[in-house]
Amino acid sequence: MQATASTPERDTDSLKRRITYLMLFRLVLISLVLGSTFLIGYLSDVDLQTQSAYIQLGIIAFTYLLTIVYALIINRVTRLLQFAYSQLAMDLVIATLLVHVTGGAQSAYSFFYPVTIIGAATVRYRRGAVISALLAVGLYVGVAMLGWTEILPTPSGQRILPYDLVALELARSLGLNIAAFGAVGFLAVNLGGQLQRTSASLASERTAAADLYARHEDIVRCLSSGLITVDQEDRVLTMNEAARELLAISGSFRAGDDLADLAPELAKALDPLASRQSIRRGEVYLTGPAGRDMVVGVSISPLTDHLDQVHGRIINFQDLSELKAMETQVRQAERLATIGTVAAGVAHELRNPLASISGSIELLRNDPKDPADREALMGIVTREVGRLDTLIAELLDYTNPRPRELVRFDLTELASETLKVFSQDSQFQGVTVRISKSSDTRPLEVVADPAKLRQVLWNLLRNAAEAARTGGGHVVVELARSQDQALIDVVDDGPGIPDDAVGRVFDPFFTTRSGGTGLGLAIVRNIVTEHGGGIDVDTELGKGTTFSVRIPIGGLAAHDPAEGTEGIVGA
CA-to-CA distance for 93 and 312, rounded, in angstroms? Predict the structure, then answer.
């Protein structure tokens, strides 16, 4: 993490800044005093060649000189606190001298004391205000009494003499000024307290902000993925180290450089992705370090401020080459595992029909005399050959599906036609099959392969009718629309599927009914996945089963059938 300024360093900078403001204020105030002195002298025709005038001008000149010295040495001073106290003390001394040479308790320059008290409050907060107020009262009373008692000599030419006051007037003047000093001191103490709390809060906020900034810098620097922020003209604002390594950018870059100049391949690849508002993620191909080709996953999001105003884009990208290679290896391993599963299933499914055919042929070879026996044996051969033909057809559909032929059609009409044909099947004469439509009167049009969806519906109907035949004898096909998807629910009131079999119903060669190949639902899932949809099963023992199919209504993205199937040869 980056080092942040320590608290003592920040306190030193704050104190130095306040001392600088104090010196600047003193310079302005003395300039006003000097200017007013000459202006009053000019307007009232006062002789400025007296000892008193010389002393006043000397005090002002000395204050100027002292302030200049302060300004010259402030950056060399190591003990700023003592430096601040010395300035405040000198201000009180200068105010005391001005008060004495301008009339003591009657002096108009007694306002220098409250000004010094306020200055002490801004520099040293409450403590400075209390100390300055006490010293101001003591110095003012002391110089007024010493001047009134003529212990301190008065310079020649002084127009207002400290001892011209009677005791009552002296007491009144002292009382008013002491009260004023006390009031100013009280307000200055409050002001100093508020300034101290504000300064502490500001220091705490600065510390938190500095730590947060350092933590943010560390997080961005340590990210393994590339992170780039650009403005609305694609000028680079920030770029982390990972982005520079992935893009093979050597040397430093300047904020404001065009992204197309720093990373032309990335900028060119982002154009089509950035133009699509609904999809902000994608994969692009770039040339990485040492000329290595790599697949990069890119995510683009808007760069907004606290008012949710967009000021640019955030580009986050990561090298997916190794991940893609691993996915390819995993997919190959899965296909090899599927080959083993399919081979075992095919061997099992072929063994029984072949055994029946072999036995029947062996009996026919012995030339049975009874024609009925010969007819029965030939029927077995024909039936088992048909069974093998069905198995081979379904196996080909599963392992080597034909490409989709996408057209726009009304799914409701397709479902009605399929149900009309299915209801004529003599195997399911005792099962009632009907269609249920939603209240939405709009055509349920989809962009899909009608032949493949008809196959999906047929397989689901066949399974549902088989189950309903041993249950309530009812099958319902429910059609509905949900946003951008068409929903097909095939509901039966059969015995349901056991819990241990629910997770395997889509596995190839898994079946719970005799005579089934176990490929129907596997083919259904492949077709649905190929169309970018999904299929779920919900079952309850003794009440029935529902297969729910979701198919995108239109605008299908390209889909690699090999990624959505578990087929093998040619998949």
Answer: 60
CA 537, distance to chain mean position in Å, is 36
Nearest to 256 by CA among 296, 312, 201: 312
Written as six digits, the tokens of 72 are: 């010259």
C-alpha–C-alpha distance, residues 93 and 112, integer Å: 10
Q: Which two tokens stand for residue 286?
A: 């770039």
Average pLDDT score over the chain: 76
Closest C-alpha among 529, 563, 564, 557 to residue 281: 557
How many Å apart are CA 297 and CA 283, to the nearest integer?
Answer: 4
Which DSSP symbol is given to 293? E
pLDDT tens sequence across 60-115:
888 888 888 888 888 888 888 888 888 888 888 888 888 888 888 888 788 888 88
Structural element, H or E, at residue 218: helix 167-222
* Sign of the torsion formed by the C-alpha atoms of 261, 264, 269 and 271: positive
**Taking the model in full, what pTM does it have?**
0.41
- Pinpoint the alpha helices (H) of 400-503: 411-422, 450-469, 499-502
Please tell me the distance from the alpha carbon of residue 90 to that of residue 83, in angstroms, as a whole number: 11
Which residues share a beta bridge with 294? 286
Closest CA to 540 of 483, 435, 479, 467: 467
SS3 516: coil
Q: Give the residue among 542, 540, 539, 504 at the shortest CA–CA distance from 525.
A: 504
Token reading at 244: 């520079």
Tokens of 165: 């006051």
CA separation for the pair 141, 161 (Å, rounded): 16
**Rounded Cα–Cα distance for residues 295 and 325 (Å):** 10
Tell me how long the chain is: 571
